[in-house]
Each structure stands twice: as C-alpha cells, then as structure tokens.
Please model this.
Amino acid sequence: MLLYAVIPDNATAPDIPGLAGRRLEIIRAAGVAVIVEECSDRFSTTKHEAGAFAKIVCNLAISTSVLPVRFPTVLATRAAVLAQLQAQEKVWSQRLRDLSGLSEVVIRAQWPEAESDDPSITSGTSYLLSRAAVVQRQKTLVAEIRELICEWAREIKVLRSQQGIRLACLVADTDVPPLKGAILRWQEAADCRQAVVSGPWPPFSFAVDQEAMSP
Amino acid sequence: MTIFDDATSFDEVGSPLDGVAANSLNSLTGRISADPETVERGLVQLVLTLVELIRQLMERQAVRRLDAGAMTPEETERVGRTLMLLEQRMGELRDHFGLTPDDLNLDLGPLGRLL
Model:
C-alpha cells in the first residue's frame, strides 16, 4: 500500500487514479484516516515520480486538509496501515487541526554570487573571506524576509539551498496574496534583488511538528 | 519576478519538492540498491557524499572561527587554502565520475537530507 496523505476521518476518497493507475482508497481509524493506493510496485525516488506524487497530493488538498506522507512510504498490508494510524492517531489528528486552512508558500531569494572559480579568489584568505561573506549575506537576507512576512507567516522554515536562500512559510490561504505582494514589492525596491515565490502548496515541509529551523 | 500560482509547477528551485520525499511522517522504506551494474558508482557517490559533508562542516567551522576572530592571518590563509583546494579536487572527482553536486546527498528520512 502506497501512502499519500493523512486526512480527517470524515473526508471522502477522491475519484482520481494514483501513481500505479489504481483508484485511491481511504483507510480510517478513530479520528484520522489515510489515503492509500494498493500496489505491488517499488517506486524510485526520481524527481519525476516525486513530482507526480506531489501533484496527486495537491489534488487531494483541494477538497480536504492533508498531512502529506513522505514519498515513497509503502506498507505491506492494510493491517500495517491501520496499526500506524492507531499508533499515531493523536499526533496526526492534532497536527491536522493545527494545519487546517493553512498552506505552504516557498520563497527563494538570491543575489549575484561570486563563483568558486572567481579569478579574484587567489588565496586561501580571499577564499575563506568570500565564504564568510556568503554566510553573512544569507543570514541578513533570511532576517530581512522573516521581518517582511512575519505578519502572515505562522511558521517559517529555512530550507536547504545550494544558492541563495529558500524559506517555507505556513500561511492562511487568505494571506497568500498579500504575502506574495509583499515579496514582489520588496524585490522591485532594489535592482539586485531576485525572488521567486511559489504556492500555495499542501504543507509538505510542515507535516511533522518541528521547531522552525534557524539560519 | 515569477510567481507560480499554478500548483502543478514542480521544480526544485521554487517548490517544496524536496519536502515531498525528504520530509516525512514516517520513513519506512529506505533501501540500498545493490544492483551489480550500479553498485560501483553508488559506492563512489556515497564516499564522495561523506567527504563533501566533512568538507562543508570544516568550512562552516572555519567561517565561525574567522567571524569570532579566533584565527591568526597565517591560520586563515592555511585553512582557507586547504578548503579551496579540497573544493577544487571534489569538483574534479565529481566530473570524473559523472556526478553533479545534487548527486552528493543522502535522504535521511525523517531527518531530511544530509546536505
């Protein structure tokens, strides 16, 4: 059984096919349920398959609150799924309530960054100073954007990023447009600022109740 | 500025796609592929990932020491040069084995990704 998302126990199963082309089903326990697809295939974690999985979860989130389950989480039997549901029922139902009406928005911001083969980096000292400058710019940028969006963001996580910064923000559905507008105005205020905002998404980065990471 | 209102636009840059596979309610299916045709490349990838982890940890520690003023100019030059050469060498090794920076990572299930 491939698990897609934890949902409230009173939700109905959407009539959409899963990754293996079979109909999605709901397995219910007291207070919480999980959407599954019966399958015997093993799934690879390629970006393509993860993206296809995420689209299905996005479709589920249109009609109900969801806690996305990590892809590819597969349990052997219905009994195993039910056992997980019963074991996690309190935690998952509480988190579902916490996330009801909230979505994830991802903000990526960056600046023109010196390449590691920058010809001005000719010594060990200049290399280390350039790295320290990048770290400092990241901290400053995170603080600036946190300040900018704190009015709307219920939780903020700093995501890993190879370049620039990426922030996942948990916001009320009604607060998504003003948050995007604030980022747009922030970017337009200076030529060197580059930002991309995406969402609203199901709360992929907030399914587990963890403290927001600090930069 | 690009704002994706379309919830089908999944890419690594703007979307929480890494959270789809790296953030979890549980992590029950981690497996290691022992396919004979790919095990050598997989082993190299694993070793380089661990070296990259150590390199990044060393670099972060060096930056912290630099910010704290805890290194002499000679130390700064020596440590910085070591890290610079190590990064160059890692790039050469990645190229040699046909790996990208994104390949040097591990999914640690509920803990997220290693790098």
User: Anything to note?
Assistant: Chain B has a mean pLDDT of 73. DSSP finds three helices and one strand in chain B. Chain B touches chain A through 53 residues (CB under 8 Å). The two ends of chain B are 28 Å apart (CA to CA).
